[in-house]
Write a structure and sequence with these properties.
Layout (H helix, E strand, L loop, with lengths): L2 H12 L22 H119 L4 H28 L1
Length: 188
């Protein structure tokens, strides 16, 4: 029997349409059953009471479990919240440290830029000096060759042919020396 049928049968058993107790009527779900009506009603009523009692106990267990879960969840929540606060504090500390490091990096970058500019300027000066030295050396070699050529031509009595040969040798020597100068400047 269903819950509703058992409740209806109990209501019918308590009183009939005329208010008389203990008589079944056509509205009773147990009316015209072959079994003993009061006994069948007692068994079904007892079964319904036991099922409802078990359901109530199950609901109490669920409530106890949910309460324990709530308490556990609250403890876990409090623990996670405390951990979150620690993480936030650590983030703030790292932000401060990062700010300081960024300042230091910016200062270092500015210093590096200044140093690079100074080095670049020094290299430009060195390069200009090197070029001037090469030019001065080449001019000194040519001037020396011209003076030697002039001395030979004016002070030594040599034939035209010997003079031309000696002059060509001096010019070759100058070219060779200038080649060394060029070679040395390429090495630098």
């Amino acid at each position: 029997m269903t819950e509703e049928q058992i409740i209806k049968a109990l209501e019918c058993c308590v009183k009939d349409d005329e208010g008389v107790l203990g008589f079944c009527n056509k509205g009773c779900p147990l009316f015209s059953k072959d079994e003993d009506c009061p006994e069948l009603l007692r068994r079904n009523a007892l079964d319904l009471i036991n099922r409802q009692k078990a359901e109530v106990e199950e609901q109490h267990r669920k409530i106890d479990f949910l309460q324990a879960s709530k308490d556990l969840n609250q403890a876990e929540f409090d623990e996670v919240k405390a951990e979150l606060e620690l993480k936030k504090a650590e983030i703030e500390r790292l932000k401060e440290k990062n700010w300081w490091l960024e300042e230091q990096l910016e200062d270092t970058e500015q210093s590096n830029d200044k140093l690079c500019d100074i080095i670049d300027n020094k290299l430009k000066v060195i390069y200009k000096l090197h070029e001037q030295i090469k030019i001065a050396k080449s001019e000194a070699i040519k001037e020396f060759a011209d003076k030697v050529d002039h001395l030979i031509a004016t002070n030594i009595g040599v034939s035209n042919r010997s003079y031309n040969k000696l002059s060509a040798d001096i010019k070759d020597l100058v070219k060779e020396m200038e080649g060394e100068t060029k070679w040395n400047s390429m090495k630098m």
